[in-house]
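Hi V.,

Quick status before I head out on leave. The structure for the redesign project is tokenized and pasted below; the design run finished overnight.
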């Protein structure tokens, strides 16, 4: 009852805010025209096509083309918004993201390199427009099926090519492995993305949604496809040799374990209700331990996680983090402005000799640098609000056994995995991953905005 009352209070607040705000008055400004528009009669399928085009293009084409598609999709979202009949599309997640964007605007205004920061703000705005566009259709069963089916098929192509690279061998495009390490000649696959860490991050949501599809999809061929995709995606993440990607898999798995335990808890015996999670975790640790004994490359990579400066990759990151923290001390509140162009021009003033970097190698540190501690707290609010809403929705859907909740769980697991990798890397900022991050957030926001109004069960 308290959860339902809290949800109703939030809805009442949002409706009142919409009625009294300038932004709220823009929503539906051209609504009389919408009923007679032939184009907007197919708005859902057009929206889904825009999202699918982003998904299809991001692993294979230039970032410029992806940006053009995002811009076109953003323009279509503006058209939908000003002609909208329903004003119940804005959620607390939308408001937190809007606040985060406003802070980014302020960081741009106060940036020491305003034009470079403006370029970063434009890119960031395009990602948020994708979120706003996708959040309109993800609660529609057919549209979500089209979008997620497209992503799983595209990711299967990407991961299959990565697995092929593992068996035929491929030369690195950069120094990804310490040349003095016993693993200097080890193959690290990168598929079409050109970077093993980027590939691992791209495939984390693919792993999560393969698990979801395995549960939700009904026919035997669909389940076989989902199971095959799961195996190939996990294998490809392993072959990247990305320690951050491996940690992301663990983070994703932990969220699934907790979510499945909650969802099917009443079907478990009292013994398994108490011991399921400890048993699974212990079994996983034993499996990893045995694998480390027999697989030397795995053993060396895992031990390198704890070698501090003994590993060249660790040492490099530590030096970059130290320099980035010195930058943060000089720009603590509002940061240097969004975008890698600003970072690339200011970082050389702080870097230690021979440790050049294109980013802070931690998305949370990078966000703090770009938008200050205010921006970091705002971004964390987006994460907390998204996770909170996801958990509330899963609880509300459980009594009716609405499998839409499993999609939400997959989105939350994906976010947890990407955030885990993001602790030690900034591939999150690349379009291939950043678009997936905001699509996962949009899935939670979309279901939240529509579930209370409809009984939209997943078939």
């Amino acid at each position: 009852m308290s959860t339902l009352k809290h949800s109703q209070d939030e809805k009442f607040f949002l409706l009142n805010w919409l009625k009294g705000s300038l932004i709220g008055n823009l929503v539906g400004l051209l609504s009389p025209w919408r009923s007679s528009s032939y184009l907007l009669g197919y708005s859902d399928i057009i929206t889904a096509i825009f999202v699918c085009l982003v998904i299809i293009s991001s692993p294979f084409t230039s970032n410029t083309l992806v940006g053009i598609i995002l811009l076109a999709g953003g323009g279509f979202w503006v058209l939908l918004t000003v002609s909208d009949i329903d004003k119940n599309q804005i959620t607390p997640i939308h408001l937190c993201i809007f606040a985060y964007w406003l802070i980014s605007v302020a960081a741009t205004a106060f940036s020491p390199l305003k034009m470079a920061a403006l370029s970063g703000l434009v890119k960031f705005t395009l990602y948020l427009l994708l979120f706003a566009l996708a959040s309109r259709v993800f609660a529609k069963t057919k549209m979500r099926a089209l979008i997620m089916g497209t992503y799983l098929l595209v990711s299967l192509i990407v991961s299959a090519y990565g697995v092929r690279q593992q068996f035929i061998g491929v030369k690195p495009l950069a120094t990804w492995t310490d040349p003095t390490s016993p693993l200097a000649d080890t193959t690290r696959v990168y598929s079409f993305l050109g970077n093993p860490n980027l590939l691992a991050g791209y495939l984390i949501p693919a792993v999560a949604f393969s698990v979801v599809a395995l549960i939700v999809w009904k026919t035997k061929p669909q389940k076989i496809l989902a199971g095959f995709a799961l195996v190939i995606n996990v294998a490809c993440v392993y072959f990247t040799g990305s320690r951050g990607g491996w940690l992301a898999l663990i983070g994703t798995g932990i969220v699934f374990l907790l979510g499945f335990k909650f969802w099917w808890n009443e079907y478990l015996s009292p013994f398994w209700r108490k011991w399921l999670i400890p048993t699974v975790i212990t079994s996983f640790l034993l499996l990893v331990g045995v694998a480390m004994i027999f697989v030397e490359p795995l053993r060396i990579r895992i031990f390198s996680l704890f070698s501090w400066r003994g590993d060249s990759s660790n040492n490099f990151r530590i030096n970059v983090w130290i320099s980035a923290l010195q930058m943060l001390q000089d720009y603590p509140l509002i940061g240097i402005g969004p975008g890698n162009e600003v970072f690339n021009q200011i970082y050389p003033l702080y870097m230690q000799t021979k440790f050049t970097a294109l980013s802070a190698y931690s998305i949370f540190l990078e966000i703090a640098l770009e938008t200050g501690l205010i921006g970091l707290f705002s971004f964390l609010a987006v994460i907390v609000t998204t996770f909170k809403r996801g958990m509330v929705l899963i609880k509300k859907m459980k009594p009716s056994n609405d499998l839409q909740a499993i999609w939400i769980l997959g989105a939350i697991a994906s976010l947890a995995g990407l955030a885990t990798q993001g602790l030690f890397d900034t591939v999150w900022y690349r379009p291939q991953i950043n678009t997936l991050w905001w699509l996962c957030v949009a899935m939670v926001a979309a279901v939240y905005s529509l579930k209370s109004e409809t009984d939209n069960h997943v078939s």
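Above is the designed sequence. Confidence is low (pLDDT under 50) at residues 1-5, 448-459.

G. will cover questions while I'm gone.

Best,
W.
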